[in-house]
DNA sequence: GAGTTTGAAACT
DNA sequence: CAGTTTCAAACTC
C-alpha cells in the first residue's frame, strides 16, 4: 500500500491514461460500456464512477429510468393530456441526439422498461397503494404525501395516462425498440458538448435535450424526465425543461449560476460542487452531464414541490418529514426527498457535511463488490426504506447521485469553459459558499468540485505519469494549505502516503483528491479506483470502522438547544472514537473532537480537556445521570463563554458540521415506545431515508427520520448513508468488527447495526473500561461510560438518549439483507438492551 | 514560507 | 497489547 506502484494501477486506469484525453474517463467508461447495457453514452459521462459501480447502474438506473422515462414517453405519447411539455419531452427523447438517445433510449430503454416493470411490481408489492398513489400523485405532487413521491417516480402515472403499469411498460418497450432502431447506426457521442449542441438545436426539446445531453445514465435520463416533470409541476413543464436545458448549456458554457425554477438551480450548483469529489458519486459522476441536468431538474422538481422549503434546510427536512409522516408507507416521495438532501436544495446552509464521506467510498467499494451500484442502491432502499420503498428508494438515490454527478459535471464544464482556473475556483467558492460549515462533507465535495471525469481529463492531460500528480498544479498550489478551502472543501497535502492512507483527509473521507489538493504522487484518483478500493479494503480489514463516520449523534436525545433556540451541538454529538489530546487540551484542531465541533466524551482519553463544545468530564457526568437539561445548560454556558466557530452558530438544525457526523433522529414516537427503534440507525427505518428536521421527528410516526437538521450535511450524510451504508465494506465485513470499533470509540453510542450481534454481545458483556492512557485501545475499547450505561443505567441510559447512533451508518446492514437485517437489528438491539437492563 | 507542534495512523 | 514511528494537519514565527 505504501506506494501504489504504477504497476498497480488498474488496467482501467492505465487504459485511461493511455487513452486519449478526450476519452475522459476511459477506465470508467470502458468498464461501463462493457458492463452496462446502456452503452457508450453513459460511459463517457460516467467517468467518475468506479467501473465496478458502473455495472450496477443498470439495475440501479433501470427502475428509475424505466419508470420515469418509459412511463413518461409512452405516457406522453399516449396521453396528450400530459402537458405539451411532456409531449415535447417525448419528442425530445425520440429526437434525442443519436448519442444520447442511442445509448439511453434505445439500448437502455428496453432494459429500463423491464426494470420499470420490475419497479412497478416492486412498488405494487411493497405498496399496492403506490400505484394508486401514482395516479393520484399528479394531484399531490410533492405535496409531501407518499403519493407525491410515487408520482415523482411515475410521472406518467401522474398524468393518469397509465392505469396499468404493464401497459405502459409495453408501450415504452415499443417506443424504445423503435428508438433503438432509429438510433442504431448512429455514432455515440459521449461528450457532453455534442449533447449540448443538440439541445441547443432543439429549443423545443429542452427536456429531451437534457436527456440526450445527459447521455449519462438511464437513470439520469429518467430522472431528468421525471424531474423535469416534477419541476414542471413546481414551475412549469416547459419551464422546467427549459431551465434544465439552459442549465446544461450554461454549465457547459461554464456559467456557474443557474436560474430557473425557484431556487432549484442554485441547488443544482451546489450539488455539482458537492458531488465532485466524493467517491460515492463515482457512479453519479458517471452520469455527469446528464446527471447534472437530471439533478437540476430533480432538484427543481423537489424544489418545486416545496418551494418554500427550499429556503431552508429545515424546510427541506420538513418536507421529507411531512412526506414520511403523511405516508403510512414510506413512499418514493421520501426517498426522493431524501435523495434530494437539503443541501442540494440550493441554500448553502442546507448543505450538510458529508458526514459519511468515508462511507461513500465504502459504498462504492461495496457496490463494486456487489457488482453494481444499482444493487447497492436497492439494498439501501430496502434496508432503510423498507420493502415497500425499495424501488423508490433506489430511484431517489440515483437522483441524488445524479445530482451530484451533475453538479460535478457542471462544475467541470464550468471549469473547462471558463478556462480560467481562478474563475473556476471562484465558481466553486460561490457554490461552496453556501455550505454551512467549511468542514461539512458537502463542503469537501465542493472542493473537489471538478468532476471526477474532469479530474481524469485533467490528470490525463496533465500527467501521463504519476509523477505529474506529484507536482502540484497551479490550482493545487493555490490551495496548498491543507485542510479545507474557503469553500469548505477539503484538500490534502499528502506527500508520502500517496493519499492512500487515512492520513489523507480526502481518502479518509472517501473522496477522491481533487485539483485543490496539493498532494504528491496521489493515487486517490478516479484513475486508480482499483488501487483506492483495494487500499480501502485493506484498511477496513484492519479496522472496519476506519471509514465510518467519526461523529455520532445521540439518538434519543434531541440536540440540546440554547435558550435562543440554537442547538447545542456539543451535547448531541460526539466523536466516535474520541480524542487523545494531551497538550492541546482539546482546544485546537489537533483535537478531532474540537475539529468536529463536538464535545469530548467518555471515549476520549484526552488530558486536561477543555473542549468548548463539551468537556469530557461533563459528558461523563451526563452519562451518569446528569439530565439533558443540565447538559444543555452547560453547553449553553460554554457556548456563551466561548465564541464558537461559525460552524457552531448553527441554526436550529445545525449540528456539528462534520463530514462524519451521523445523526439519528432522536425522537420518534416509536422511539419512546420502542427503544430499539430509537437506536436503529437511519438505515433501519424506512423513515431514515427521509430527511427530517427535528420538527418532523416529533410529528411523525415515521420512526426516525434521520436527517439531522443540519445535517446537512445531513442531507449529504443522509444520502450518503443510504448509498454507503448498504454498500459499505464495513457492512460487508459484518457488523461485528465494525461495531467493535464503534463501541470502542463511542462507548456510549449505541450503534445499532443490524449485523452486529457480536458487538451487541460485547456491549452486553461487561466491557473493560478503556484505558485512558492507552492510545491503541482507545479505538478498540469501549468507553467507560458506555459500560456504565450498559450496566448500571442500561435501560435508563439508553432511554435517556445517551446513545449515539450513526445516523448514516455507512456500514449498516443494508449491505446484506436490508430489510430483514433491519428487523433483526432492531430485535438484537432490543435484546441487548434487555440484557443490559437485566444486568 | 519554513519550521515546529500535535495527535492520529501505521507499524513493530 | 504496548510502544514507537510515521505522517500530515495545525499551528507558530
TrEMBL record:
- From the UniProt annotation, give the residues forming the signal peptide: none
Where this protein primarily resides, as one coarse class? nucleus
- UniProt feature, compositional bias: Basic and acidic residues: 180-191
Q: Name one Pfam family in it.
A: TCR
UniProt GO molecular function: DNA-binding transcription factor activity
Q: Which segments carry the region annotation Disordered?
A: 1-30, 55-106, 180-207, 461-488, 707-733, 768-797, 818-839
Residues in domain CRC? Answer: 488-614
* Subcellular localization(s) per the UniProt record: Nucleus
* Any one Gene Ontology cellular component term annotated for this protein: nucleus
Low complexity: which segments have biased composition? 12-22
> Polar residues composition bias: which ranges?
63-86, 827-839
Give the matching InterPro entries: CRC (IPR005172), Tesmin/TSO1-like_CXC (IPR033467), TSO1-like (IPR044522)
What does the UniProt keyword field contain?
Answer: Nucleus
Keyword check for Chaperone: no
* Record keyword Ligase present: no
The record's comment on protein family reads:
Belongs to the lin-54 family.
This protein's name: CRC domain-containing protein
Phylogenetic placement of the source organism:
Eukaryota, Viridiplantae, Streptophyta, Embryophyta, Tracheophyta
